Predict the 3D structure of the following.
Amino acid sequence: MTRPIRVVVAKAGLDGHDRGVKVVARALRDAGMEVIYTGLHQTPEQIVAAALAEDADAVGLSVLSGAHMTQFRAVVKLLAEQDAQDIVVFGGGIIPAEDIAELAELGVHGIFTPGASTTDIVSWLRENVAARLEQD
């Protein structure tokens, strides 16, 4: 049997709205994943440190503040600097459709905008982390 998927979920920057990230965290936990919620007002450095300390398979950012390009870019860059680009980065929030392709180019593997179902997020995460789990 493979181990549970380990996911760090975080609220980056000054964004103080955390209902959505808590709903997603609970759905992931209920699906059998190990979830570490870092809390509000995290810096990219804190998020990456938590991901490394927790041996995370994925990092999920929730961004509603409009700072998604800056926050995702920083997290992806810091993971690469730590030779941890195999950690799957995904996220959600208020992210304009025109920014999703650029985020993908940066290395953000999935974006879930308002209305995305937790079932879809769970399925997507299982599919996109499967290769990392096979390496263990």
Observations:
- The chain has a mean pLDDT of 94.
- Strands lie at 6-11, 34-37, 58-63, 88-93, 110-112.
